[in-house]
Amino acid sequence: MNTTNFPGEGAAGWRPIDGGVGAPQGFWATGVMAGVKYQNKYDIALIFSEQPAQAAGVYTRNLVKAHPLLLTQKHLANGQAQAIVVNSGNANACMGPQGDEAAAAMARSTAAELGLAPEDVVVASTGVIGVPLPVERVQAGIVAAARELRELAGKDNERAEAAHQAALAIMTTDTTVKEVAYELPLAGGTVRLGGIAKGSGMIHPNMGTMLGFLTTDAAVPASRLQELLREAAEESFNMVTVDGDTSTNDMVVVLANGCSGISPQGAEWQQFAGMVKAACVDLAQMIARDGEGASKFLEVTVQGAASLASARQIARSICGSSLVKAAMFGEDANWGRILAAAGYSGAEFDPTKADIYLGHVQVAQAGQGLPFSEEEAKKVLAAKDIKVLLELHDGQAAATAWGCDLTHEYVTINGKYRT
Amino acid sequence: MNTTNFPGEGAAGWRPIDGGVGAPQGFWATGVMAGVKYQNKYDIALIFSEQPAQAAGVYTRNLVKAHPLLLTQKHLANGQAQAIVVNSGNANACMGPQGDEAAAAMARSTAAELGLAPEDVVVASTGVIGVPLPVERVQAGIVAAARELRELAGKDNERAEAAHQAALAIMTTDTTVKEVAYELPLAGGTVRLGGIAKGSGMIHPNMGTMLGFLTTDAAVPASRLQELLREAAEESFNMVTVDGDTSTNDMVVVLANGCSGISPQGAEWQQFAGMVKAACVDLAQMIARDGEGASKFLEVTVQGAASLASARQIARSICGSSLVKAAMFGEDANWGRILAAAGYSGAEFDPTKADIYLGHVQVAQAGQGLPFSEEEAKKVLAAKDIKVLLELHDGQAAATAWGCDLTHEYVTINGKYRT
Predict the structure, then answer these.
(1) Pick the CATH number of B15-287 from 3.40.350.10, 3.40.50.80, 3.30.70.100, 3.60.70.12
(2) Topology of the domain comprising B297-415
(3) Considering only alpha carbons, which residue of chain B is nearest residue A314?
(4) H or E stretch covering A339
């Protein structure tokens, strides 16, 4: 039995490297401590491309959208950007005209420091909703970050560490840094890709409080980049669920500055696209693994579905079920909850054909419980990583969703977030 | 400001009485301990009508349906029933032909003991999924319950206590008994209504693991009864959310045996319908209040919505948000989460017109935060009952949803449910 079904698995050719979003040629990144909400916390991230970059973004589908997100959508309408500025500690959401002005001020400061047009700046924020952004502290942070970027010139050995600070600066209740970088050798030379993300609570399909920023030195037209990002997000970030809530602020943006001089085509495009998707899946898994209060990582694969949409819907429903998540926390092989969560997903399937596996242990066949070794099941559930497979025997489509268990710690974190 | 909007509030004429589902004329009910899962726990409930009753039911919309539920749907197709048998401790779900046979055996035993056709028996189960129902113990319990009903004849002072045991017998992780009874004086005499319910975890719109049974001695044709039950369930049971999961087993059934000799018409029908809805809202609120691990009762009212469907969708989304629920547990006035949960409900509205109140404290206006007294907000949130009001200024529709906070105890209960 094959319980995993990673998008991009089996594809290959790229290899991990250091350097995060600063790894691709022509990109510089850093993070500084500006005291937005806390002292001694990196909270302003700045990413700069030496050349104007082609740009694409995907955004929260929440009806309530934060001010920086609305500004970024406008700025990316022409498919071009050259810098990304992010603050953590304040969402700059639900603040009216004052919030729009605060987001615009972030773009203006960044543009002035880096010698760009404000329209070429991507602005993002994450943190508490409905509290005024401390604009002066944020602007001072942008000035400091830009200075650090200038000071990096010629110091190649410090670039990776600086880029790592950008990854630190976008974190909120995250407990781990989410950062990847790859390089892909192609016929004409090497293409690089870097990515950072933040996740933790409120993560759910459709970009629930999640930020992701990708950089690449490949040359890719904005329209193609947009299509690729949308596909990649569908099978990565949108397959992560921590608590079913979605946020006002979240976005994933990719910049492609072409500094490698390579524009992947044909089979090389497929390799490049595979690398982008793999990076998104990596970041998505890191987000799921670091769900607020999580003690376990949950991977739910639905196979044999009638359509990809059904497979995704069912996998997300199981992964997001409070009862399934609490059972995983308790290491209780309560497979009935898995089938029940599939049943209320909204997708059509025939429950009397469904097989269920917990790790390698089959617990249900054709919609009915099987006698299984509680001891073996306990071993599967005692592990930090738990794989669940639902085989529907309804078609050929498959999808995987990632999440985490529901713990006492989640409740504690979210009972006191604002204060 | 008016924060409450109880369906049926203000209507009147009925008054509470004792006796639960045994209160209406011609109904007898009891519960016994059959050791289905635990010893010394009432776990078989039996409700019997002296006369064949008109009957209506609403059922879970989960694609995965338990065996007793499928049987009951068949039995109620003709709109008639004369007894209800329920076991707790085992859901009799996902068991294949063996499960169908177990449900049929419950109907046959009940019919044999009470001298009815099996098709006139409503069967319901609640408990763990995927474990064989201990049919012999259940049948022995049915025999014992039927004997108790016969022994009640002539002992009117024991009827209420016996009916109360039926309410006890349908409980699982419930910590409180959910039981109501009303009488309504009409021109031709008095009509009575009784109801019991079970709830706790897994409660959500569309009948998530919830059982409800109503009895009335009014004469109401099955088709009219069905329409009334559907309306009543929409604004009561379907507006309760505890954890977003829905179940395989849940149903609400009403029997009307006509023993009062009264068939309410016109204005009296409106009164009768109001009483049925009020009973359903009472039971729904008891369920929300007793959500697994709940420490607080949450009432979310959405006013000024463009449509009733939108108002309900938004109210349920807020009430079901893990982040809102955890904030209520932590007594944190994090109103941004309320607006965000409205934003991902799927209903259309204009967030820049939305006002938000926590109890009497307005915390946001036109989609933006207001300066408010943290002290006053703390007082509101420190109470056991918390009311949230979202005024959309988008139309005339309003709806109220009920739920509870998300607590450490919820996680504990659901981590160990099966064992």
Answers:
(1) 3.60.70.12
(2) Ubiquitin-like (UB roll) (3.10.20)
(3) B63
(4) helix A335-343
